[in-house]
Amino acid sequence: METLNQFKKFTSGLDATAFMPVLFMGHGSPMNGIELNEFSSKWIDIAQNIPVPKAVLVVSAHWFTKGTKITAMDMPPTIHDFGGFPQALFDVQYPAPGNPQLAKETSDLVKSTDIFLDHDWGLDHGAWSVIKHMFPKANIPVLQLSIDYTKDAQYHYNLAKELCTLRKKGVLILGSGNMVHNLRMVSWEMINGGGYDWAIEANDKFKNAILNKNHQALINYQTMGSDVMLGIPTPEHYLPLMYTLGLQNEKEGATLFNDKAVGGSLTMTSVQIG
């Protein structure tokens, strides 16, 4: 009965719901989840300046699966998918509810592939480290959509387009990763700010393409040069951007924020559409 009431609350008043923006968040270090800094402060600001969502759907770099899955439990657990950090980070719990009915509705929306209802995952730090700043009361349902590692960027971009209806129903769709993300080349001397020349050049290419709506260049990122390939040694942190861009319509522009390189080989550059 409680789940049914939650769904009725979700679906009530949909005609009056604002067309939700779409976000790509550079989430960076898990420590951003418990620190109030320039990045997390902006996440708070974003949440205060968009309509309150009826639910949040996160595409996180940290749920990389064969096939596509969506969390479909009533109460997704908080996952601490990292090591070597202070105990305070492992103590974090973000007890936001899930929404099984919305998971099923999302699965039914997608016709190009099967979306499997998952009851084993939860909210990894790609989701909760950002969302806990945006919606600290944990009173908005949060779901995660996994990234199929067997598919290319074009596939993920196209899949995103099938989710557009959710924007009209008050769902905030949020990609969480980092455009430039090469942990093997992190510089601890630049951990508080600064990037290698190649990281800055790659990030500039991404920003120019985003602002000019040159999505095809971003989909075919492997052809953008050696600096880009250094910035994306593996695609999991880049692919959430494809979901954000795939949901952009012809009339919408893009706004960049948290545009900063850290640790030499990572960029926190983030995008708001709508």
TrEMBL record:
EC supergroup of this enzyme: oxidoreductase
Keyword annotations: Dioxygenase, Metal-binding, Oxidoreductase, Zinc
SUPFAM superfamilies referenced in this protein's UniProt entry, alphabetically: LigB-like (SSF53213)
GO MF annotations in UniProt: ferrous iron binding; stizolobate synthase activity; zinc ion binding
InterPro entries: Extradiol_dOase_DODA, Xdiol_dOase_suB
Cofactor(s) listed in the protein's UniProt record: Zn(2+)
Superkingdom of source: Bacteria
Alphabetized Pfam families for the sequence: LigB
Extradiol ring-cleavage dioxygenase class III enzyme subunit B domain mapped to chain residues: 46-250
EC number in record: 1.13.11.29
Protein family per UniProt: Belongs to the DODA-type extradiol aromatic ring-opening dioxygenase family.
Protein name, UniProt field: 4,5-DOPA dioxygenase extradiol
Native source species: Pedobacter frigiditerrae
Gene behind the chain: ygiD
